[in-house]
Amino acid sequence: MQYALFLVFASLLGAACSDSPVANTGTLNDRNPPPAPVPATSALSGRILVRGMGADRTVELRDDHGDVFRLLGNEAIALANVDGGDVVVWGTWDASPGLVVSKFKLTGMNGRPALDGVLEAIDNGFAIRLNDGSIRGVPGLSAECVAYVGSRVWVVGFEDGSDVRLGVIRGAQS
């Protein structure tokens, strides 16, 4: 009986270690590697902090709990223009340490609610084209703002047209 079990075990072991080609069973091996992981998108909200200058400059976000996160990528370059602004950022944790920002929305500036969009000239002044495609007229912007048409900007004071201020997030695209 022991000899029979030994023969069965030896034949199974020999079949498992055989070099003969077999159909792909769907198991993970050199011929069927696992798919590359897709980074999950995360959202963070808080206030932008810019530290340093030039090559030493870092862009960070401080959330409502006081936690600080380093922001990286091309969108982080634009975020450097809104130091002190309140934002929501979306990105992936592809960098160590930090969040690679894929997009963001400015929600406040200087403690005031802000519009974030592209400045457009309209018949009676200026308007902001928001990310959702809607257009919002902005009373109170001076004629000098024509230099920023086509730029992504933030505007505060849009609610009532008093003490309206504008800042450039990113210059007009060529």
Task: List the main descriptive attributes of the protein structure presented here.
174 residues; mainly beta; OB fold (Dihydrolipoamide Acetyltransferase, E2P); 2 domains; 5-stranded mixed barrel; 5-stranded antiparallel sheet; 12% helix; disordered N terminus
Protein described:
- The protein has 174 residues and is mainly β.
- It has two domains: 41-109, OB fold (Dihydrolipoamide Acetyltransferase, E2P) (Beta Barrel), CATH 2.40.50.430; 112-170.
- It is 12% helix and 42% strand.
- The chain has a five-stranded mixed β-barrel. The chain has a five-stranded antiparallel sheet with strand order 9-8-7-10-11, with no helix packed on it.
- β5 and β6 (112-113) form a beta hairpin.
- It is elongated, with a radius of gyration of 28 Å.
What's the shape? elongated
β-strand percent reads: 35-45%
In quaternary terms, these chains amount to single chain
CATH topology description of the largest domain: OB fold (Dihydrolipoamide Acetyltransferase, E2P)
Rg computed from alpha carbons, rounded to a whole number of angstroms: 28 Å
Q: What kind of sheet is the major sheet?
A: 5 strands, mixed, barrel
User: What low-confidence regions span 5 or more consecutive residues with pLDDT below 50?
Assistant: 3-10
The total strand number stands at 11
Question: How many helical stretches?
Answer: 2
